[in-house]
Every structure is written in C-alpha cells, then in structure tokens.
Amino acid sequence: MHEHLFSAATADRYRDHMARGVSAIANHLPTIAGPWTAPAVSEVVARVDEVDLDHPVGDLDAALDEVGRLYLDDAVWFHEPRYLAHLNCPVVIPALVAEVLVSSVNSSLDTWDQSAGGTQIERRLIDWTAGRLGFGAGADGVFTSGGTQSNLQALLVARGRACVSGGADPGEPLASTVSRMRIFASTDSHFSVQKSANILGLGTDAVVTVATDGRRRMNVGALDLALHEARLEGLLPMAVVATAGTTDFGSIDPLEAIAGVCADHAVWMHVDAAYGGGLIVSSRRHLLAGVDRADSVTIDFHKTFFQPVSSSAVLFSDGESLGHVTYHADYLNPRSSAHPNQVDKSLQTTRRFDALKLWVTLRTMGPETIGAYVDAVIDLARLGYDLMVRDPDLEVVTEPTLSTLVFRFRPDGVSEDVADEINPAIRRIVAGSGSAVIAGTKVGGRSWLKLTMLNPATTTDDLAAVLDLVGLIGREALEEIPATEQVR
Length: 488
Ligand SMILES: *Cc1c(COP(=O)(O)O)cnc(C)c1O
Prior knowledge:
Bound molecules: pyridoxal-5'-phosphate
CATH superfamily of the largest domain: Type I PLP-dependent aspartate aminotransferase-like (Major domain)
CATH architecture of the largest domain: 3-Layer(aba) Sandwich
Number of strands: 12
C-alpha cells in the first residue's frame, strides 16, 4: 500500500518508474512531425471527458499510454523550430533534471525549516541576478511564479512606499489615498500592469498610458508631461513601469532617461524585464543600460533563460522595501525566528524550489551558453526582418530589438480593410496545417501577424519557409477577392 510513496524503501521502484516516464517522452519525440497537430477542440474535450476518474487503469504503463493519447499526441511542442507564436521557450535538459529533484524532495521555500540549503541556493541566485543587473549590496528579491506575480509584488511594494511618503500606513492604506495613486506605463506595456492596479485597489483606470515612438519605446517627454499633469491634478504618482522587452515588439523603453525622470519626480521605477531579462547574460547587455537605477525589476527565467515554467524573480535595489509584504505567523515564521525565512519576502506561502533549475543550468552550462542562445534568437529576428523588408508582399512594423517581428501580408494596392480580412485567415490556415504556429496582434486597431523567436535551433530556412507559406496562403486568399474590392 505504501509502494506509491517516495521513500528509501521505494528507491528501486522510483528509479524504474521515473525511467518509464522519461521513456514515454523520449520515445515520443521522434514521432513529432510539427509544432502541433491542430486537433479539433471538440475531439480533445470528448477524449478527456470519456475518462472515468473513479476507475484507475491500474498500472503506470497503462496510465502513461492513456496520457500519450490524451495529451502527448496532440501537445504543442515549443522545441519545434517552426513554433513561432508566443513567448514560450524550448527548455534546457539540466533544468529538467533539476525539476525531478525539486518535485521529489518537494522542499517548500517558505521557511528555512522546510528547505535549508534550498533557501540558501535561492538567495545566492537572487544575489547573482541582482549583481548582473548592477544593483548594490543592499539589493534583495525572491523567486515567483511568473512575470505577472513579479509585477504585482513590485507594484504592491511601490504602493507601500507611496503610502509612506504620503504619510499613510502602508499596511492599511486609506481608500482616499489609494484612489489618487497613478501608475505610468507605455501603451505597449504588459496587461499584468492593469491587472495589478485592479488587485491593489487602484482600479484599471489608475494606469496612465504613455505614448510610444516609432520603434514602440516609451516617449520620455510624454512621460514627464504626464507626471507633471498628475501632480497638478492632485494625484499621487505611485510608479513608472518601464518595459525592457515589450511582449509584442520586444522594444526596450529608454531606461536611462526614464530613470532620470523618475528621480526628478521622486517616483518608483519598476522595470518589467520579463522578456528582456536574458540580456544580462548575452553580448547585448548594453541594451539594458540604466536598469541598475530601477527600484524593482521583473525577470522571467522561463522565457529568455530557457527554463521550464515556472521560474521568475522580482528584484529590489533596496531589499528593505520588501518589508511591505512581511507578515508573521506564530506557527511558521514568528517575529522571534532567527532563521532566514523567505516567506517574509513572498506573496506565496508554500512555494516551489524553482531556483534549483536555474542553479543546475548555470552550474552545468554556464551563463555564456545561455547568453549565446539569447544572441542567436536576436540574430534570427534580424534575419527575419531583412527577409520581410525584401518581400514586396509583406509589411513589418519596426526593426526588432529582441526576437519578435510584427508583420502582415499586404501587397501593393491592397487596402487595409482587405488586409484585415486576410491576415487573421492566414494565421488560422497556418495553424490548421500543423506545419507552423504563428501569432497575431492588433496595431492601431488593425490585424497583424507576429513571430516570436525563442528557439536557438530555428534556422533562417525555417523562417523563410514560414514566410513563403504566409505569402502563398495570402495570395490564394487575395484571388478570392475581386480586384475592385481589393483597393476598397
Ligand atoms: C510574459 C510577460 C509578462 C508576464 O509574465 P508571466 O510569466 O506570463 O506571468 C509580463 N511582462 C512582460 C513584458 C511579458 O513579456
């Protein structure tokens, strides 16, 4: 009966069963023909709904077979070179090995007495990351479940700071104070900023959107003006969110200039580097110049460090400010505790030891190899841009800074309305073919397509093939539309 429990007594069974799990995936890999099989939703729903959860299939092999049919056969594979849709990365093997250790030992990083060395490993990685960002010795931070939580925590701490400077109690901020608070972020910032504003009781309207320039970077003059206006209106600027790698365009807001404006207005500067964080190990570290002047930084290791989900961190240049999230429980982390308890710095209580994945990655591969992967996908985006610029049927919004390209099929003379019909159709047909997956987005209310390159194994030929497919589908779609309507 206890044979299912992980223990010294089941070590042989553990070894054997883990190997079967690994084999299930490893044997599946050579059968994969593309990033996905484009299954119909109804089919997948029916297949999963059929399973009678009250009657087990009885052994691991049968359960794995079933999972193969329900999940692996039609999974979306981010390691496939023509998966070019969202910010999902192929994962590195050392991190997967660490994942086994993380789940098996099952440490919880809330307190020292549930993690010991785990806590210290996480703290070293936070210090290492802070060092790479250029923060001083007083910096601190914590691993989180993702960029969304990292941004929320940074803004929570910024709200606490704004309360203190407004003469209010950060633990019980007055509604009248909070309702005057404003967050400034560019029109291309991540929607988790709005979400955070809502969760923090500010309301979505508390996010003032600042215009971007032609390369989709925050317009610093507009930011300065918006901050002045807010003060004149009696509002309380709480934070400026600069994005280092916008989700759509990979653009990096001018961090140095924004730091200057934040200093002038004495307002918290948060840098959302969820996407651009990998630059700290790449040869393009200079693209983050000015990040060292931020009060807080979000970095997603599960994007540009090729880590399995979840792995993210939020860093603070002044570690003391983390006190805004500290609560004490007598049974867990009493005020009198002499131990380093990470729960004092986290929004979560029970928390996975995700840091070990990054640790084993760095100890096995080293930061330069990860940095070379980051450089490779940025180089690839540059090549993709050149292909697009040379193709008369394609338009591209802006040169890439990181590894995304927003483009559309629109040959000469084709109206924007017609392009708006054709491009979403191209995306659907590409996805339905199963040979590639690309994304879509809106720019100025118009439909565009998007490629996100996060796989160093994607080649220029892969990119060229996907663009050829886009052109082919686009021209076929155009033929269905009478010439007189194409220019409408
Ligand atoms: C991905 C992303 C986020 C959200 O991160 P999650 O890990 O998905 O929660 C936030 N900001 C930016 C700029 C991102 O690209």
